[in-house]
Amino acid sequence: MLIIFLVWFKALGLFLVDAGQPKQLGCYKDFPSRKLSGHYFRDANLTTSKCFNACRKKHFTYAAITCVNMLECYCGNNPRLLKELTAFKECDTKCKDGNKACGGNYRNSVYLLNDDCYQGEVRNLFHEYVYLGCYKDSIDARKLKGYNYTDSNLLPETCIRACQKHEYLFAGLQDKKYCFCGNSQPLLRDKIPDKNCNLTCKGHFNEHKCGGRLLNTIYAVGKCKNSNEDKGF
């Protein structure tokens, strides 16, 4: 019975490497829509370490390698990609470092880069968030450097949902019209009293306001115990 289980386990590609190293989670389907959409690049000379380093640099939790005409690296925080497990043999493309686990045609070889970080699946409910406070920002060095948009009718719930949709861990509202998303934890040295983020959104939800001039009202829309940057809280 044990032998049968181990054979099945191996066939699905559920191999775990040493703690502290990326964990190979298996081979997963990636069609018709991309399962990781945080960061992406193509590289004919892609290696697993190059993909891992790129995703870690941008503070993402998962890395996926696939091959559709050319080797591609995808990064993200959302584990919804883990729903469509398939046979490991479908991810038999070789990377340039000789690693065979580099995906296939619309098949992702998925790796967990940091098992201390968790990002819940995209929620439709607004209550999946934690208010962190009011933080200083800078035009020359934005604190949340990911997806952003401007909306004169900005609502906290729409900003939070947008950041969750784009697989970021933090959402910030500024000057009652700007929404910023990012993966870097807010720094304690940038935190100021909540009363400074006193601009009211035009929407109906005004519990924590919508920031101020170069001030972000920040929410955690995911959870990360450790970060490669300074701890903010």
Automatic annotation (TrEMBL):
Q: What is this protein called?
A: WSC domain-containing protein
What is the source species?
Clastoptera arizonana
Q: Which PROSITE patterns match?
A: WSC (PS51212)
Q: How does it sit in the membrane?
A: Single-pass membrane protein
Domain of life from the UniProt record: Eukaryota
Which taxonomic lineage is given here? Eukaryota, Metazoa, Ecdysozoa, Arthropoda, Hexapoda
Q: Which InterPro entries match?
A: Kremen_rcpt, WSC_carb-bd
Q: What Pfam families does the entry give?
A: WSC
According to the UniProt entry, where is the signal peptide? 1-19
Q: Which UniProt keywords apply?
A: Glycoprotein, Membrane, Signal, Transmembrane, Transmembrane helix
Q: Looking at the UniProt record for this protein, which Gene Ontology cellular component terms does it annotate, in alphabetical order?
A: plasma membrane
Where the record annotates domain WSC, the positions are 21-114, 128-222
Chief localisation class: membrane
Q: Does the keyword Membrane apply?
A: yes
**Compartment annotation:** Membrane
